[in-house]
């Protein structure tokens, strides 16, 4: 339950991303700068945190052991996540991007077969491919159906198919890249470094991509405006540092259980709730429709079922262990 609550808290800070990214695009800022500036600003924050904790040297030693893995999976987990997300903000409204991003709930389960677990057999240890947790997938589908209901209701107001596709497809790529890159790095680090070190390491390892995007930005649109720099700074602090560390900390707590990992990742569905609330308060938008409220209820129900099921499994496992001990 603690990991679920931390995941929910992270989604509050993640919600800032969707609102401000759309705001930057509407004011004429390029997605090339929106994406790269966030990670440029994250570096000093994270270096300061890791340095104060006395773990900077340990991180660099770990990164030197296998730099290619760090670069590849950090580029997937951060680059193929945030680049498409900011690109989508230029092509569609914030609610469309925030809602479609919740596909990560399903994606987090579908990437499970990319990982292996070691089991003991009569012939010794053996690696087997992990299986998609079907019950978790059912609960995730409840959440996703709620999101679809909100999307259909909102889209009925009139969104062109081209805008819909350009806003949706990049986010689906991001939805797969984020859990895949995150889990691959957890698998590689094997608990040898903490959450703060891992976020800093992934930020540094993905930096070649951000430098390239910034260079393209200089050539195509020139330097960013002061307003975009300031808003990117807020996104970096809120989403890039606070939300990312909270979310990674929550996933680190349950990294050995794919069902619980899926439950933590499912908490990100609440982002759309916080985005809607933020738009109502900050942008004076009207309350969601009745159908949208039904969708929100389905999202919350799915999240509760995820939490209850993951805790039920933990309780049953504990009982089974005690019985065997007797």
Automatic annotation (TrEMBL):
Domain of life: Bacteria
Transmembrane segments: 39-56, 68-89, 95-116, 136-153, 159-178, 199-223, 229-249, 261-283, 289-309
Residue runs in coiled coils: none
UniProt KW keywords: Membrane, Transmembrane, Transmembrane helix
UniProt entry tagged with the keyword Protein transport: no
A Pfam family hit: EmrE
Protein name in UniProt: Multidrug resistance efflux transporter family protein
Organism, scientific name: Fredinandcohnia quinoae
